Amino acid sequence: MLAEELPAVEPVDVDWSHVERLLPRRTVPTPTDKAAYPSGWTPQRGNPSLPYSVRRSVNHMLPVYLRIMEDGVKRLTVVRNVRGDIWKLHDELKRHLEETNSRYIASRVNEVSLYVQFKGEYVQQVKDWLRERGL
């Protein structure tokens, strides 16, 4: 085909805002500041007086997880994204868990991968303790 035979191209101005809001976002948006959230979620306040911090996950949640292994028999509570003095966090959190549960709790610290692990199911207790400290 020759250039003369091709149809003319006509630009069309279309408002895509209604379509773009339906597409998934590339990143999780920063939460808006409110006095209280319906889900009970609290933003990270930060506590500069502490020598450690626990960085939130991409979804702005506390990185405290329960690992269930060996057909549900072995349960481990893992605190990830620990920055700063990981041993101080480990010592204070372990002392709190042992006082709360009135028993010895085995634990492990991985300085390279930046996580602390406790033997047992203590996810909610750890999250509450971190929130009390503003982490």
TrEMBL record:
GO terms for biological process: translation. Its main location: mitochondrion. The keyword Ribosomal protein applies. Keywords: Mitochondrion, Ribonucleoprotein, Ribosomal protein. It is found in: Mitochondrion. GO terms for cellular component: mitochondrial large ribosomal subunit. GO terms for molecular function: structural constituent of ribosome. Belongs to the mitochondrion-specific ribosomal protein mL49 family. PANTHER family: LARGE RIBOSOMAL SUBUNIT PROTEIN ML49, MITOCHONDRIAL 39S RIBOSOMAL PROTEIN L49. This is Large ribosomal subunit protein mL49. It comes from Amphibalanus amphitrite. The lineage of its organism: Eukaryota, Metazoa, Ecdysozoa, Arthropoda, Crustacea. The gene is mRpL49_0.
